[in-house]
Amino acid sequence: MSSGSQLDREQAQIMRAVRDAGGSWAEAMRAHKLAPPDAGFAARLRALADAAADEQVAWEHAHAAGLLWRPVPGAERAMPPYELRPGTGRRGPEQLWSRFDAAVARLNGAITGSSAAAVADAFGEMAEVAAALADAVAREDAPPSRREARPRARGAA
């Protein structure tokens, strides 16, 4: 087998990973767009974090193979789905949402260029902050534990 054939096979495998990661990312974004008010918000944030992490890995491999990102003109003005936008009643720590908004801006900027490494880094940042938000919202949604519940009066059954 020639080394060119090996390289073609490797690039094809990387491109399949890129397509799969892109499909997961699109599905995660659609879930936010079609979301009923607040139902499953933490789970949607977790899916977004996982999809961004998959994108990061795929584009790191693409960069290592010498592949480029296809620029998306005008993406720097793109807005995330409504429930992820500022001023929409997003739940979770404001400092994490500020980081999220910065990650959105960085990702939007990265995808206007052709650097697969910059896109991978931006998706990595998005994965990190979306995971932190998912954890924070899940903690807010969790019922109080028995230890946190008000103690019963003595002798109460």
The beta-strand count equals 0
Q: Residue ranges: pLDDT <50 for 5 or more in a row?
A: 152-157
End-to-end separation:
77 Å
Number of domains: 1
- Count every helix, treating DSSP H or I runs of 4 or more residues as helices: 4
The global form is: elongated
Structural class designation: mainly alpha
Rounded to an integer, what's the Rg over CA atoms? 20 Å
Beta fraction: under 5%
Average pLDDT figure: 86
Outline the biggest β-sheet. Answer: none
Provide structural commentary.
By secondary structure, the protein is mainly α. It has one domain. The protein is 62% helix and 0% strand. The chain is built from 4 helices and no strands. Helix 2 runs antiparallel to helix 4. The protein is elongated, with a radius of gyration of 20 Å. The protein starts with a helix and ends in a 16-residue tail after the last helix. Residues 152-157 have low confidence and may be disordered.
